[in-house]
Amino acid sequence: MLLPKTYRKLVARRLSPHFREAAEIVEVLTPRPGPGELLIRNRFAGVNATDVNITAGRYRPAMTPPFDLGAEAVGEVVAVGEGVRDFRPGDPVGTIKLGGGYAEYQIVPAKHAIPVPEVSAEVVSLLVSGLTASISLQEVARIRAGEKVLVTAAAGGTGQYAVQLARMAGCTVIGTCGSEEKAALLRELGCDRVINYREEDVARVLREEFPDGVDVVYESVGGELFDLCLEALARHGRLLCIGFISEYLTGPQPVARPRIYARLIPKSASVHGFFLPHFVAHFRTHLPRLFQLYRSGKLRVAVDPTPFEGLESVADAVEHLHAGRNVGKVVVRL
């Protein structure tokens, strides 16, 4: 295959939580893979709320601009380095690499590449968003049949998987969202109780309909909703904190209230932070199951219908997500 002399990628030129202000498209020479490496042509890149944390420099405080942007991507192998045996040009492949997603090409060690069943927006959605839900619910919260699971931002990129996987585990699932379009998706996914927070008071619904509390919370919004979820925990309840999108643009906000242990100890409850890179050892078991569930039709993948094409659209896609307009996973076609 004839490779182009150059390719384009997005880099952060300055530190800012405002993605558009930080990001810039640059053109660089196309590298050739070294021993044990792959050159991949990215076709789809996943958009994540935490992209603004990356441009703000919160992921690696010691890293200074310019640095590459993006996370998960899928595409095909276009060249292999010496000693690579498990991949060949044309193979569909996925990657989860900080700085690897928002680029037309990328070099990765073959041992870090992920064989995928197809090159599609659906598959890229399963990488970070699907793995986060699967690993955190099963390995950290250890959900059990009969439990009540509350999912915030349930119609988003990762919430959709938390809803479905909890239902598969035999749980009763409550999902929050902010529009009727999102509520309709959640009902289609099997959510037992959908709460549109623009039409119903979440605290009142939980208090009146689930007076004994919920056993597990899959929480990604933060702020006042985090506080509300903490109060809603049942005895031995577990709150999974996978993010706090409400404070990503401003940074974490200080609060003046009694410390959290005063609310946890009376219920023997717990709060678990979850950061996917700390659970790489579980990828080998969880990702094949997610692919199998998707290909068998048992797991639905909702990709946001708004089209985003090319690196020029990435800032629009990030802002679309942070405005809460997405229904499902936001994906950019490269």
From TrEMBL:
Against SMART domains, the record matches this protein to:
PKS_ER
Domain annotation Enoyl reductase (ER): ranges: 18-332
A Pfam family found in this protein is: ADH_zinc_N
Keyword hit for NAD: no
Keyword match Oxidoreductase:
yes
Q: Which UniProt keywords apply?
A: Oxidoreductase
Report the domain of life of the source organism: Bacteria
Write down the Gene3D superfamilies for this protein, in alphabetical order: Medium-chain alcohol dehydrogenases, catalytic domain, NAD(P)-binding Rossmann-like Domain
Q: Which CDD domains match?
A: Mgc45594_like
A molecular function (GO) held by this record is:
zinc ion binding
Entry's transmembrane regions: none
What's the protein name? Alcohol dehydrogenase zinc-binding domain protein
Q: Which organism is it from?
A: Rhodothermus marinus (strain ATCC 43812 / DSM 4252 / R-10)
